Automatic annotation (TrEMBL):
It is an enzyme of class 1 (oxidoreductase). InterPro entries: Amino_oxidase (IPR002937), FAD/NAD-bd_sf (IPR036188), Flavin_amine_oxidase (IPR001613), Flavin_monoamine_oxidase (IPR050281). Its cofactor is FAD. This is Amine oxidase. FAD binds at residues 30-31, 58-61, 437. Belongs to the flavin monoamine oxidase family. GO terms for molecular function: L-amino-acid oxidase activity. Residues 10-459 form the Amine oxidase domain. Substrate binds at residue 61. The lineage of its organism: Eukaryota, Fungi, Dikarya, Ascomycota, Pezizomycotina. SUPFAM superfamilies: FAD-linked reductases, C-terminal domain (SSF54373), FAD/NAD(P)-binding domain (SSF51905). Its EC number is 1.4.3.-.
Length: 509
């Protein structure tokens, strides 16, 4: 078959490689100048020789969890097929370091002492506990249920899909508003607890993981490696789709910007783009009402990231150095992420300031130059107890307001949206199919995009059970009739090798 894919994010690239593996012709149309979608590594000019200075403006970390197994299998698949220069190596990502201080209400406290913040006016029976401990009392039974059986656990969670996590804490757990706001401030983002109960529980399932990884040299190396395996003549960048037409014979015609009179016809099409990008295609079929609603109304939270390049890695020096991890503050910057690459290096470095939901929206209305100034002011306040002069250290800034980008933010559903849109949004419409992390049960993560792409391709090809990329290379069992063939069975373990810059490793039984 001749298949068109709209979108060269992780879902589109993964779907393309799956279809190529199965012997089909694939053409990808990408609106931006690069592949990767919300995977985006920005590089700053180096100050020193052999220095690679970057920050992750998009995806930046992956839990070493069985829920993300297909991501790690994808890494092994790519490393089997790409050139030596493009092979990917995983390095540890440090989610938390013992010296990651918090700064709240003008007080700088250690993470372990966050229960001692003054002037919070918490009720007596909630005092003496950290926000993390209070949250754990509520979510631990749900996390355990998901760990025991994700499918059954998710069904149980959906019983509360019609209410927000804030409503659950208020009405079911009977928390006072001041306690909810304290925990949300310390452990999440402003107004994020107004999202669906199911969304917040699944998000906390991922962050319950102890070990994390990232890609040496930047996450963008992943989509770039995937794109290198495709025929570049069939990968069209800077080519937004402006029209989708269903022909009488069932085939699909795609019209792209810049060629309004020309169109390309495909047997089937996969739309691997966020709902906002799909909504902005001028000419497309009018699908059923609830499908249209899912495109119009599915909630994507605002995300804002700013990377600040400094002359030295000053946060790794002083009385309480932070080697990776992140600090939380009620200042406008909200989260300070310390890089996990080049730890202890002598060169320059980048701090990432990260916010989402209402905290991100606050930055959107401010001119970029002022955003940089405010970020530097807040950092100086945070590091006021040190001898660091932030502006003397500062070199350059780069930021991304994802709600202003074609890729938008990430899917984080409002109450009831899993129930309303979870099924209908991913249903095919004729020979038009849909893929993306928002169509999975695992929003915001590359694993969700991969799961969705695999499910979509299996449906498109009419396959009951399809091996993912990297899942097809399981060695035949001892004594198999033909030991020279590839065994197309599913993985028999959830073992995630610590180093994936190697080719395939034997799966543990």
């Amino acid at each position: 078959m001749d298949i068109g894919i709209v979108g060269a994010g992780i879902a589109g690239l993964y779907a393309a490689l799956l279809l190529r593996r199965e012997g089909h012709k694939v053409t990808i149309f990408e609106a931006s100048h690069r592949v990767g979608g919300r995977i985006y590594t920005h590089r700053f000019p180096s100050l020193f020789e052999d220095e690679d200075v970057y920050y992750e403006a998009g995806a930046m970390r992956i839990p070493r969890s069985s829920l993300h197994l297909r991501f790690y299998q994808f890494i092994r698949y790519l490393n089997t097929h790409v050139s030596r220069q493009k092979k990917l190596e995983l390095i540890p990502y440090i989610l938390e370091h013992q010296n990651n201080d918090f700064f709240v209400r003008g007080q700088k406290v250690r993470l372990s002492e966050s229960d001692q913040i003054k002037d919070l006016d918490l009720p007596e029976n909630f005092r003496g506990k950290s926000a993390r401990a209070l949250l754990a009392e509520v979510i631990t039974p749900w996390i355990q249920m998901l760990n025991d059986d994700f499918d059954k656990g998710f069904e149980k969670i959906l019983e509360y899909d019609e209410i927000s996590f804030r409503q659950y804490l208020r009405l079911v757990c009977e928390w006072p508003h001041v306690v909810i706001d304290f925990v949300e401030l310390m452990a999440s983002q402003t107004n994020q607890y107004d999202l669906s109960f199911a969304e917040i529980i699944v998000q906390n399932l991922d962050f319950d993981t102890k070990e994390w990884t990232t890609i040496r040299g930047g996450m963008s190396r992943l989509p770039e490696a995937a794109a290198s395996l495709l025929d570049r003549t069939n990968l069209h960048l800077n080519t937004p789709i402006t029209g989708i037409t269903e022909l009488d014979d069932g085939r699909i015609s795609l019209r792209s910007f810049g060629n309004p009179g020309d169109s390309t016809i495909f047997d089937k099409v996969i739309l691997a783009i966020p709902p906002a990008a799909l909504h902005n295609i001028d000419d497309r079929p009018l699908w059923p009402f609830m499908k249209q609603q899912s495109i119009r109304a599915a909630h994507f939270e605002p995300l804002y990231k700013i990377g600040l390049h400094f002359r030295t890695r000053f946060w790794e020096h002083g009385a309480r150095p932070s080697f990776g991890g992140q600090s939380m503050t009620d200042l406008r910057i909200r989260w300070i992420v310390y890089p996990s690459n080049d730890l202890g290096g002598d060169g320059s470095g980048v701090l990432l300031l990260y916010s989402w939901m209402t905290d991100a929206s606050r930055w959107q209305s401010i001119p970029r130059k002022q955003r940089v100034e405010l970020a530097l002011d807040d950092l100086q306040t945070f590091f006021a107890d040190s001898s660091v002069n932030i502006r003397d250290q500062f070199i350059a800034a780069h930021d991304v307001m994802w709600s202003c980008e074609n890729a938008t933010g990430d899917a984080m559903f409002l109450p009831g949206q899993f129930s309303r849109f979870g099924h209908v949004a991913k249903l095919q419409e004729g020979n038009v199919y849909f893929a993306g992390e928002h169509l999975s049960r695992h929003h915001t993560w590359m694993a969700g995009a991969i799961d969705s792409a695999l499910e979509t391709v299996a449906s498109l090809l009419g396959r009951q059970d399809m091996a993912g990329l990297g899942e097809e290379y399981i060695r035949p069992k001892e004594g198999a009739r033909d030991e020279g063939t590839v065994n197309l069975c599913r993985s028999i373990s959830y073992v995630i090798p610590p180093h994936n810059n190697l080719q395939y490793v034997e799966e543990a039984k």
